[in-house]
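Section: Multi-chain targets

For targets with more than one molecule, the full set of components is provided together so that the structure can be written out for the assembly as a whole rather than chain by chain. Components appear in the order listed by the source. The example entry contains two components.
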Amino acid sequence: MQEDRTDIAPASGARILLVDDEEDILPEYQEYLAMEGLPSLTSSNPEEAYAVVLADPDISVLVTDMRMAPLNGAELIRKLRQALPGRALTYIVLTGFAAEWLGGEDLNATILTKPVDLNLLVDTLRAALVWTA
Amino acid sequence: MTAGARPARQYDGLLAVLLGLVGFALNFGELQLGWGIHFIFGNALIYAFLRVLRPAHVTLAIAIASIRSILLWHHPWAWLIWTLEAWLVATIGARVPPVRVDTLFWLVLGCPLLIASYGWIMDLDRLSVVLVIAKQAANGVLNVTLGEFLYAGFLARGPAFALVRLPRMPADAVLLTLLLLIVLAPATVYLAVDAPTGEVHAREAADKGLADDIGAAAVTLEGWQKSRSAVLRAYAAGGIPGDSTELTEDFSRILTLDAKGRVIADTWPAGGPSAELRYAASRSPRNLRDAGDGLIRLVSASAGTPRLALVVSSLRKPGRERMIAELRPWALSRAVRRVTRGGPSAMVLVDANAHVLPLVGDSAGVLPLLKAWQAGPITRLPGGSALISPRTYGRSLMADIESAIMVHVDAAAPMPGWRLIAAAPFAPEVMKEREQQAYLFLMLNAFVFAVVVAGSVLSAKLKRSLRALAQGAADLALAGVQRGRIDSLVVRELSDISISLATVGSQVARERGALLRYQSRLTSIARSAPIVVYALMGAKPDESRVVYLSAGCTSMLGYAVAELEETERWTGLIHPDDRAGYRACLASLEPGQSANLEYRIRHAMGHYLWVYDSIALEEADDQGRCELIGLLLDISERKRTTAQLAEADKMAGLGRMVTGIAHELHQPLNFIKMAAVNMQERLKRGQPDPQLLRGKLESILAHVSRSSAIILQMRVFGRAGPEDAELIDIADVIDIAASAAELHAETAGTMIRMDCEQGLVVKAVPILLEQVLLHLITNAVDAIAVRARRKAEPTGRISIVGRASAEDVVITIDDNGTGIDPDVLSVIFEPFYTTKAPREGTGLSLSISYGIIRDLGGTILAENTPEGARFTVRLPRQA
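Its structure, encoded as tokens over all components, is:
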């Protein structure tokens, strides 16, 4: 895990972790956020992402897809909250099925629908980073 | 009897004559009841045919048989009365028990007729008339009773004698017959056994008197001889004068002879010596010498008339050898009569020459009898007694035995050369016995009458009871109507039977009522329920005919019941495509089995209805015929609904798939957008790295292709409308279904693994089969998702395997999901059964799948495995 983390998180100091089981999309997100001045880490495996967050205290914003196996976004968030009760961590969910979650269980997370409005994503990330700084 | 078969009525007359002759012959074997009384039984045989022959023929037969009575008794009266009896019994006996008729006949007609004929015309004494009446009546009743008993015997013998249909005997006739037989038979046997004994006793009694008289007479005669001899010796010796009364009283003349036989003294010489006396004198010396001891003996005076003399020899006076004293005719009688006092009717002395010397009574009637009885010399008669009658015992008749006499011959003669015989008429003894006999017969007849009366009352009651029972049984058989009351019965068993009959009757009535209600309920159901019940009967379903058709066929199918009663009409209504299936189903059924099938049947209006037919085959009788009962339900509506639901389900499935596809399209679209935005940004910022852009463009194109593939799949699945069944490779079907489900499965993180043999061909509508498999895979995916949601488990796996079995293609779909609740297994293929939330499924998919597979002639089975659930689909394999 530690090795994985070093592999996928070359830019130290990054405070954003992007999780999506669709591997193709992650570099595009990362590239766009980088162009906006927001360095980020990526992970295509939710379990790996969980380990990264636990290991890296710098990470303060988690952007995750909802439908993933073997851990979906909601489960990942719940698990992290459980594991890190005192940590200031902002969760942002990207989902194609926002309807599923509207009125659903309270994740206490920002939910953005896919295809994501990138300006909104960047604004939300900036706000989160400021708030958790 | 052999000629008496029903159609050959014309031989009945002949049969009657034959019977009469046989009866006549039988009548010769009469039964001796003593004292000239007989029972004859020939007529009993004829009475046995009372129910078989016509009255006229019975009368004829009896008239012939009874001719014996004329020969026996020399008068026609008995014959007349018996013939009349037969006519009456035969005429009325058909309705009333013959024995009762006969008893009444003797009481009302027979008795007066016998009095008139025997009493007035033949002038028989009163006792004899009474006896004759009693005896004839008893004989008559006995004959009818025996005849009835014989007939009952025929009946009891059963088929062996049933050359003609023998009319049954009514209960009262049987009862009366048996009662009378019980009374008459022992009485008759007793009389037959007792009669000879009675006669012997009577004889002994009669003989005892005679023997006593003879004994007394013999002693008297001996004494008389001795005393008179003494008187004669005294006279010879001159002790008494010649005119003393001792001499004159008994002797008419006394001759004294010398040794040479010369008369030396004559008491009354005036009369001159009679030739007879001289003859006696001349013969006596030798006779006397023969006698030896010189005792006094009575000798016959001559060979002709019985003139007797007392000869005294060995006189002890010189010159006087002997005396011959002629007896006065009354001398011996007077002496004997003094001691016999009129006991015997006659007493005689008989010598070897059959000279008879009457001593007592009138011997005139006795002598001819004696002569007829004993042809030889009377001196050689054995001592003892005998009953002398014109006929010997056993063949003697009433009149003969009455005129018989009892004789007794002395054992040892009181005088040499003479036998003493006493005779008395037997009549007094006979009369005494007859009195007893008459009494006996009268008592017997009284008994008979009493028995007939009592038996009639009893049998009338019995008959009523039996009739009531028969009526009860008939009622029971007909309508099960409960009899209010069955007559009180004399016989306990009958009473018991009647009670059970009444009980059964009420029970039958109750059950019948229940049955009727049940039947009307069923009829009402069959009429008003939207069903048709039909029953086919026959050895084979093909050869059967419609035996029942409920009224529902009018309301459901529009036909009148009568229109469909031929089987061909019935099966002809079935849709041509379904007919073979129907026949095959019927042919495969074994008795006791049932089956359900669905087919189309033509309505009278011309359109087809879908019906659900629940048929059961039952063995109807022991000839192997079977009854097939079918119950038709109109399921057209359901079929329509199901079709609509299937469509709805398909749409729902489509909807689910569209959702999945939309999600699936999100991914490439999202990527394309991101890549495009990044390219745009880079161009905006003036960092156009061609290498980077090319890579991005290639990625974009790849994602566009992926999107197209997704849309293509949707199009494949979105085909609409039923297609014709065609031969398809099962591998293709599995491929399409799996790829359609893959999107759904992948998003849930489930792996689908396929393993299918090549060349497995089935005949099916492809889209339907795809739909089935898709349903099954989707269910598996959902089950895995549920399980995954509950607890973290390894990756979901679905394994689809296609294999060939002997005749089928077997497709199994295994998953490692939650498995199926055992309670649910049994209902899992029922419509609308679902474990899913309302938005996730209609609950129809498995039911529809089941229908589709069944329509293809296959089966679908659900079971649990250690890992999860398994669905097995079997389809007939095509070559």
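Helices of chain A lie at 2-8, 25-35, 46-55, 73-83, 98-101, 118-132.
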